[in-house]
Design a protein that fits this description.
Blueprint: E1 9-12, H1 18-29, E2 33-38, H2 41-55, E3 60-64, H3 70-84, E4 89-92, H4 107-135, E5 138-143, H5 156-176, E6 181-188, H6 194-207, H7 211-220, H8 230-241, E7 252-255
Parallel strand pairs: 1-2, 1-4, 2-3, 4-5, 5-6, 6-7
């Protein structure tokens, strides 16, 4: 299947490691022009070199970007347009907020999580829409969490604002369809990233067990019997962003090996 991604201008947020890096790598393998971003320039330089080596694609650039800063987001999209003339595909991504229950968090904690996990997505979409509308085509993927289908214990901030992403995406799918701009939300389940390892470690400490024991127990709850690999998640994102997807919009897809039981 031809995914029609060669030469496409792609912006991926929070992409120096984890899911963002995996997604960027898969786009690079398809011949896209990829602009990666994160807060850490050193990590971005390293990731750029790694993606170029793995993919053989020289068209990888980076921009330092703190997604909680409106001016950083504006500069990121401006750079993509300066480099490639447009933005064909936007992959919204951000690190997860702190773990904890309701009583753990202050107003500042709630505000910070809102800016990180919902307002940042709103701002990037606002910045890319003029370019996408002009060409009457575009794809937007919002990376959230499996909590968009089933809430996760001890992650109330994530549960709240990831759900907001779904509402945003569903509403925009109707507003943007006349411009042939497709938008979908993708929620990772237990994917083997640093974020998941960190959450597992904290939970293991709380329960007084090793991280290895906790992971083994977690894997037993997944029908496929293992954590997903970042590359597996990335391939689904790339498909939804590709020319092979011409009609699927406003949907929320969980990639979790069958873990979530909610309909």
């Amino acid at each position: 299947m031809d995914l029609q991604l060669k030469g496409k201008s792609v912006v991926v947020l929070a992409s120096s490691k984890g899911l963002g890096k995996a997604v960027s790598t898969e786009f690079a393998k398809e011949g896209s022009k990829v602009l990666i971003s994160s807060r850490n320039q050193e990590e971005l330089e390293k990731t750029k070199a790694e993606i170029q080596e793995v993919s053989g694609n020289p068209n990888i650039d980076y921009q330092v970007c703190d997604v909680t800063q409106a001016d950083h987001i504006k500069q990121l999209i401006e750079k993509a347009i300066d480099l490639h003339g447009t933005v064909d595909i936007l992959i919204n991504n951000a690190g997860g907020p702190p773990a904890g229950t309701f009583d753990h968090f202050s107003d500042d904690d709630w505000q910070n999580a809102f800016e990180l996990n919902l307002l940042s997505f709103t701002r990037t979409i606002r910045e890319v829409l003029p370019s996408m509308r002009k060409q009457q085509e575009g794809k937007i993927i919002n990376i959230a969490s499996s909590s968009i289908k089933q809430t996760l214990d001890n992650l109330i901030l994530s549960n709240t604002f990831r759900a907001g992403i779904v509402g945003l995406s569903k509403s925009l799918s109707q507003e943007l369809a006349p411009d042939n701009i497709l938008i979908n939300t993708v929620g990772p389940g237990r994917i083997a990233t640093d974020r998941v390892a960190n959450l597992d470690e904290k939970k293991a400490d709380k329960l007084g067990v090793s991280s290895e024991e906790l992971r083994k127990k977690s894997e037993q709850s997944i029908p496929m019997g293992r954590y997903g690999e970042p590359e597996e998640f990335a391939k689904a994102v790339v498909f939804l962003s590709s020319g092979a997807n011409t009609y699927l919009t406003g949907q929320s897809l969980v990639i979790d090996g069958g873990l979530v039981k909610a309909l």
